[in-house]
Structure formats: structure tokens, C-alpha cells
Amino acid sequence: MHSMTNARPRLTVNGLHKQFLLHGQGGLEIDVMHDLSLTLQAGECLVLAGRSGIGKSTLLKMLYGDYRIDQGRIRLHFDDGDLDLETLPTYAWHGLRRDVIGYVSQFLRVVPRVAAVDVVMEPLLARGADEADSRQRAETLLARLNLPERLWRLPPGTFSGGEQQRVNIARGFIGEHPLLLLDEPTASLDAANRDVVIALIGEAKARGTAMLGIFHDEDVRERVADRLLPLDGNQGGLSNASQHYRESLS
Ligand SMILES: Nc1ncnc2c1ncn2[C@@H]1O[C@H](COP(=O)(O)OP(=O)(O)OP(=O)(O)O)[C@@H](O)[C@H]1O
Prior knowledge:
Residues 11-250 form the ABC transporter domain. By secondary structure, this protein is α/β, with parallel strands linked by helices. The protein is 36% helix and 24% strand. The protein has 8 helices and 9 strands. The protein has helices at residues 56-63, 92-99, 116-125, 131-144, 161-174, 191-207, 218-224, 238-249, and strands at residues 11-22, 28-40, 45-49, 71-78, 81-84, 101-104, 179-183, 210-214, 227-230. A 5-stranded parallel sheet has the order 6-7-8-3-9, with helices on both faces. α3 crosses α4, α3 (116-125) runs parallel beside α5 and α4 (131-144) packs across α5 (161-174). The structure holds adenosine-5'-triphosphate. Residues 20, 30, 32, 52-58, 241 line the site of adenosine-5'-triphosphate. Adenosine-5'-triphosphate is lined by residues 20, 30, 32, 52-58, 241.
């Protein structure tokens, strides 16, 4: 995998469009994103803003390969060249997620019977890291996030929402990916743990991590955002969706 450079934006998005075709609704089309462009530098945290349903999570899912890039360009910049995600073959996404793009989703996808500490260290093991070192780093992160030690060896399926989210955050940060996507990582946390996440984001910035995040909490947003990107304006969203819906009825 390429190594990333500090000299140019790590990520450039140009003319991105996203449309969902709802087969169950007689082929209704929903325009979620229209002509979105952005750049993201190393060590920068860009926060996506805009009303609910405007397409913030959709953008993160397109960057992570969960949603197809139908129109527009998403380009990652490395020392030795660029990588266009819209033409990336399916098999290449696995390595990209392992080594380059990290993602803290809103909810932990629990794997049954796997202990919390193993969930957290897995991204390191996937790269062939030493098991004892990986476990040590996972435990350090879980301790920082105040997850009680008695829970570390238990599967997180029965943990509280906030406990699961802290396992999720530890798993997302442990890999120190050069590009990190954050979908409401602090939503279900108390003030003390929110502060830990803000500190983790600060440390990631200092390492040169480029971050794109969604934070509804204004206090958190102010503390982490280097820039805000409002998705409202000409980027479609619900107004377009409802317009399409009305057109489909007429
Ligand atoms: N897989 C999908 N199929 C159909 N429509 C979808 C799909 N994913 C998202 N949408 C629609 O796209 C729009 C944008 O959703 P998205 O989750 O990106 O919004 P958001 O800005 O992150 O909202 P919130 O702040 O409430 O999380 C919504 O109208 C949603 O219903």
C-alpha cells in the first residue's frame, strides 16, 4: 500500500453526486448529494454540518466503500501517486480499509463471542502486528476510555450503548489510519469520556491524521473542528428528495 504525503491534500472530492433508487417504491429516485467537492489536509479535522438527512453519513459511507460512487471523483494522495476510489476494484477495498481508511461508525457491529479486547486489537492483528503488543495497546485504550477492566474479556453484545461505543472508538483509533472517518463518535458518551475522545482526536491530528467527522454536539464540534463543511446549500438533500417525490406523483 502507498504511504501518504503531507505536502498535498490527502483527500480530494470533486463533483460527487449520490442518488438512491428505491425499487420498493416503484423506482422512486432520491437525490441526496449534488456536486459536492472538498479537500482534506493531513492533520486536519473537517466537520460535516447540515440538517438531518442532508447526506453526511452517506458521504462517509461512500468514502469507506459501503456505498457506490455513481458520479464524481474521490481521490487519495500518496507520496508515490494518487488513487481514485471510484474506479477502485472491489478486491482492493479490503487492504485500503486495513491500512489507509479507518472508520468509527455510530454503532459497534458486534461479533458474537469475541471479547472486547480482541475486537479492539483485531485491526492491528490484521496487519500482522505482534499479539502481545496489540493486546497491550488495546488495553491501554480501553483503560483511557474508562471501560471497566472486568468487561475487557467479555463480548460487548450485552454492554450498555456507551460501553459499546467506547469499544468501537478504541477499535477505530488503534489502527492510526492516515484517514479517519468519524460518524458521531461522542453521541452516547458522558462528559468525561467525550473529553477522552477529544484528546484522541487531538493526538491523531498531531500524528498527521486527516479526519472527516460528524458531531452534533456543538461544544465537541468547536473543540475538534479545524473547518466546517456545510452540506446545505446546493447539495440537494431533502428538498430535492421531496421535489422528486412530488414529481413522481404527478
Ligand atoms: N441505503 C439507502 N437507501 C435509500 N436512501 C438512503 C440510504 N442511505 C441514506 N438514504 C437517504 O439519504 C438521505 C441522507 O441520509 P444520511 O444518513 O446521509 O443523512 P445525515 O445527514 O447523516 O442525517 P443525520 O444527521 O440524521 O444522521 C436520507 O434521506 C436517507 O433516508
